[in-house]
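Work Package 4 report. The design task specified in the project plan requires that, given a folded chain encoded as structure tokens, an amino acid be chosen for each position. We show below one input record used in the internal validation round.
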């Protein structure tokens, strides 16, 4: 007979934490969960609210940078430049949005100006800047000064959970200014103090030609043979480093320092106007002509590199003895003429000299045409296609006794330089063709108020900036260039940068 043993299983007692009754450990997880939940809710609140705050900061940052850059590009040391900067700032700011849908409403209270990029510098408001604009080439935009509500917003959870303010406030600041200008560190004298006048003075307005600081558009000058105040040529190196009114060193204009700037056609100064600049006389063409000729795809014997100093897209020399669009000019530039302590050309006296012959005018209209004085508007920007011009049929009046050239390009704004094929075009080498740039043969040259004080290292004042087109390569003694009009300094800003 089987006998079954019946045993009683007794549960083992729970292990107790020493000194703590078992019943007091019940609910510990719930307490831990409550604390963790509160922490998680806080993290979620921070995440949900920091997203809009971060986005608003990014929107303000983008608008401030773009507005500062746009405004700084307009400054040229004049009251008009400040006004242009304010207009550009407003137009730029109002193209941006915050909270993805609201347009910024610009206020001039948000912009200030200075002569230095240092944030601790002397920054002045817009109205003060208009009254004393000289040397102001830097802009600061401070979004906290806007009153459109773009600097604040509502939080979603942080205010409720942490008894904090239900709104947030953010702002941004940006400083921008010029770092260089597309100006060749070479200067000549303005041949007249007048920015614009009609020629001939006795003729009816409709037939007068625009003359700017004594230069005629379309006329070729040897820039090494000019002076309005003596029979000795005057030409200068422009300090490519020191800004107007700032301290300078004579080494700034040494050949080693100036050469690369001649190659690139740029200077590191934010301006050459609005104050005295440092110049050195004379310009050592014999040492620097090769740098100028890099524009013709010639790099042997100079310090230029095609990546920093590319050739022009059209490198054809418009030499007087090989031209096909003119009838036998006798020289490259208009013949030199000296009278009444002035060194100029036979094309400059008004009225025209009775002794002039057609070949004496040299090469004409290879890049620019003579402009009509009646089309000129003082204090107005020149249209993109230029002021109205004369036709080749007017040459007998403009340059007597010249006649209309037989094979000049067709009507409109076309000039020989603008050709992309045929007799008036020559491409750079294959190696540099993709690097080439149209207009590289144009030298933007400061025109100085003369006479300039005697001496080597001196101060000078810039009346304006002239555009001169190199018709042929420079030599050790000659720099032949055709005058193509004036250009505002604000149009020559090579690069505007943000500053920390």
């Amino acid at each position: 007979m089987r006998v079954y043993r019946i045993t009683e299983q007794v549960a083992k007692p729970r292990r107790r934490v020493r000194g703590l009754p078992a019943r007091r450990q019940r609910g510990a997880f719930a307490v831990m969960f409550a604390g963790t939940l509160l922490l998680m809710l806080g993290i979620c609140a921070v995440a949900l609210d920091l997203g809009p705050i971060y986005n608003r900061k990014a929107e303000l940052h983008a608008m401030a940078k773009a507005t500062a850059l746009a405004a700084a590009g307009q400054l040229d040391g004049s009251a008009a430049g400040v006004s242009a900067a304010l207009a550009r700032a407003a137009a730029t700011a109002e193209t941006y949005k915050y909270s993805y849908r609201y347009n910024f409403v610009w206020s001039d209270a948000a912009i200030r100006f200075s002569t230095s990029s240092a944030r601790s510098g002397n920054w002045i408001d817009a109205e003060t800047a208009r009254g004393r604009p000289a040397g102001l080439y830097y802009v600061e935009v401070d979004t906290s000064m806007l009153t459109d509500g773009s600097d604040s917003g509502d939080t979603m959870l942080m205010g409720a959970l942490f008894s904090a303010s239900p709104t947030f406030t953010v702002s941004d600041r940006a400083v921008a200014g010029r770092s260089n200008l597309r100006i060749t560190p070479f200067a000549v004298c303005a041949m007249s103090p007048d920015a614009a006048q009609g020629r001939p003075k006795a003729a009816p307005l409709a037939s007068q030609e625009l003359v700017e600081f004594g230069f005629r558009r379309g006329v070729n000058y040897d820039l090494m043979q000019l002076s309005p105040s003596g029979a000795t040529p005057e030409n200068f190196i422009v300090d490519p480093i020191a800004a107007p009114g700032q301290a300078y060193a004579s080494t700034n204009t040494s050949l080693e320092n100036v050469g690369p700037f001649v190659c690139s056609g740029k200077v590191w100064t934010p301006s050459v106007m609005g104050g005295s600049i440092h110049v050195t006389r004379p310009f050592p063409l014999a040492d620097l002509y090769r740098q100028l000729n890099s524009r013709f795809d010639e790099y042997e014997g100079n310090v230029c590199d095609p990546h920093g100093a590319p050739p022009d897209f059209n490198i054809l020399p418009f030499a007087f003895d090989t031209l096909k669009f003119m009838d036998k000019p006798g020289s490259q530039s208009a013949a030199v003429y000296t009278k009444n302590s002035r060194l100029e050309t036979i094309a400059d006296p008004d009225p025209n000299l009775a002794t002039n012959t057609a070949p004496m005018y040299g090469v004409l209209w290879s890049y620019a045409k003579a402009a009509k004085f009646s089309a000129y508007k003082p204090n107005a920007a020149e249209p993109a296609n230029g002021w109205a011009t004369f036709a080749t049929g007017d040459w007998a009046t403009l340059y007597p006794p010249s006649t209309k050239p037989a094979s000049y390009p067709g009507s409109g704004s076309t000039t020989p330089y603008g050709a992309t094929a045929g007799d008036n075009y020559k491409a750079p080498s294959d190696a540099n063709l993709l690097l080439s740039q149209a207009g590289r043969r144009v030298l933007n040259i400061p025109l100085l108020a003369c006479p300039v004080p005697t001496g080597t290292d001196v101060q000078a004042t810039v009346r304006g900036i002239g555009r001169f087109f190199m018709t042929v390569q420079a030599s050790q003694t000659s720099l032949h260039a055709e005058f193509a009009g004036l250009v505002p300094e604000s149009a020559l800003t090579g690069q505007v940068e943000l500053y920390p």
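The longest helix spans residues 28-72. Validation will be extended to a larger panel in the next phase.
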